[in-house]
Amino acid sequence: MTDTQTLTFNNNALFLELCGPHDTHLLRIESKLKVQLLPRGNTITLKGPEGARGEAAAALETLYARLEQGLPLSTAEVDAALRIGNAPKGKVATTNQTLTLPRRTITPRSVAQGQYLTQMAANELVFGVGPAGTGKTYLAVAHAAQSLLKGEVERLILSRPAVEAGERIGFLPGDMKEKVDPYLRPLYDALYDVMHTDYVDRRIAAGEIEIAPLAFMRGRTLSRAVVILDEAQNATVAQMKMFLTRLGEGSRMVVTGDPSQTDLPHPNDSGLADALGLLKNIEGVAATRFTRDDVVRHRLVKAIVGAYDARAAKRSGSGGV
Prior knowledge:
It contains 11 helices and 11 strands. Helix 6 packs across helix 7 and helix 9 crosses helix 10.
């Protein structure tokens, strides 16, 4: 059944931002939901099937509320509002968390991201598992940075296994730091994206922010810190045990990874899947599992992940290699 409803927005300036330049935000919602959105004055008339109208109305109200909070609106936020509104029934998580950082104000762009932020605030050890482009590492770093800025912890420690993806670091020029820094670059990038470069560099020089390969964690006790292990699918079972047992007083850990992208010679040796199964019933441990529907990077990333997943499923079903 096709019907209409009308939404009224009181602030004319915010209403113009809601519509977007040349109504681009409205056109995007129309394209995604197959509805008609007709702006006039400070009202929008919605035409289309009841379900689609409801989703469009919810997205518009969410986006307007964001503008009322003084937060920016872009195509990414429009897509996020549609993604959250279209979450499967029964998949409920709070999505109103906001990370306020010097260079970014970050809100969840999927229900899974909202769950992830909630879990990081409530648990000592959180796993973020899923495909590329879902925000696992970025949100973990942003959450850790906010904890440091608020004085909740004294240090940030960010780590990755230095596993060669088909290459050999021994042939790279330079000392050990110069050899391993390329593996750690995504962690630097995330920090620099949410905090000012000079601040990050000063905190690194002072030892309050440390970015190091996983092997450098052995024998340490990491207290009053947020500790992140990224690309954890490349940690062996023994390395994962070593890392997790570094947890000290007043610290929290976040472990992120994509089990489908391990670079280990023997993928079954990955410590990420092992830890997820082994620790799932321990109080204070939580896990968020992202899927390709949670991809928030470039629109093609979701399609790429889907193509690889479909091929893997087909091979698995046919017993192929």
